[in-house]
């Protein structure tokens, strides 16, 4: 069954060929967040022709608005023009916390905004809404039939119900957790850079954000060095394929 979210998808993009001399691809994914470093991160990606997959939700930003408000339309249009791919990260960025009954899943805010038990139609609508917002800004955006739960936390019903909407859940690989959500006192940028450069292998799905409110040493400060270091090892950056990556 192809639900509301699936109906909004663009036709799958043609498979990308790895550049000559590439030892293997890595797949950078960026989730919405505080967005304080969004423009700086976008400039780094542009400088190095890095194509990423952007998982979008309507979250609060450092400017006091929200990531999918009209004020952010120019930012998202620019990312579409640069060739990045997009996928749903839910609309409200609440967390899945249990399956109370068949065909039902509990969706709960961590900011004391409440909770809701979603049925099939409700989940499809929740996943479709950020893509609908993006389409208003940029109808030509390349959207993949993927979704990511906030925090990567799923329930069996949420995964099954999303599949009935036409969407496959996409997490990240163990070595792909770049650490931008970690406390910078315990995990300073220099340590994250060393770890990531040593651990990341071809085929990894990497995850980061457009800035994390709680991190005092912004991860964007080492992103360029991380990208160039991985490229020096012969890795290349690609958007996720339409079928996702395990």
From TrEMBL:
Any GO BP annotation: carbohydrate metabolic process
GO molecular function per UniProt: hydrolase activity, acting on carbon-nitrogen (but not peptide) bonds
Ranges for domain NodB homology: 24-238
Pfam families listed in its UniProt record: Polysacc_deac_1
Matches recorded under InterPro entries: Glyco_hydro/deAcase_b/a-brl, NODB_dom, Polysacc_deacetylase_ArnD
Function text: Is involved in generating a small heat-stable compound (Nod), an acylated oligomer of N-acetylglucosamine, that stimulates mitosis in various plant protoplasts.
Family: Belongs to the polysaccharide deacetylase family.
Protein name: Chitooligosaccharide deacetylase
